[in-house]
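Worked Example 4.2. Consider the chain below.
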Amino acid sequence: MDFPFGRPQAIANIHGADPAAGPIGTVAFYCRPTGTLVAANICRLPQSGPEIFGFHIHEGCSCGGTGFSETGGHYSKGNCGHPRHAGDLPPLFGCGGHARMAMLTGRFRVADVIGRTVVIHSQPDDFTSQPAGNAGEKIACGVIHPLRR
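Applying the procedure from the previous section yields the following structure tokens:
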């Protein structure tokens, strides 16, 4: 795997409901002195529409269930409302079915999200609607695991 920011402390291997045709990729999590660096590298995203996808960390610890229903709601520390959940991340902007994104956040530490899920939604988050931003169906998911040495 190519990790442009060095070796991450945790990673989520992303997959769609159809592993042969749906989205795939990785989301890496790095401890930094000022927060947590989150870096996504996703391919095989749908190319219909504007190619903007909701991107969140969810409370659940499994990508199981119909439509990834076991992921639960957005990860939230301190019962904050949307879009102030710790798991509310910037949208992924696709380009020909591919998306790369890196962002730094102070909303959580890497250790806080290990065992939780990363979810990609079919629509962009509107950052207003409660409780989850009206981001459409869950099209891909991955469980965050510590990266073994």
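The mean pLDDT is 89. The CA atoms of residues 76 and 85 lie 4 Å apart. Compare this with Example 4.1 before moving on.
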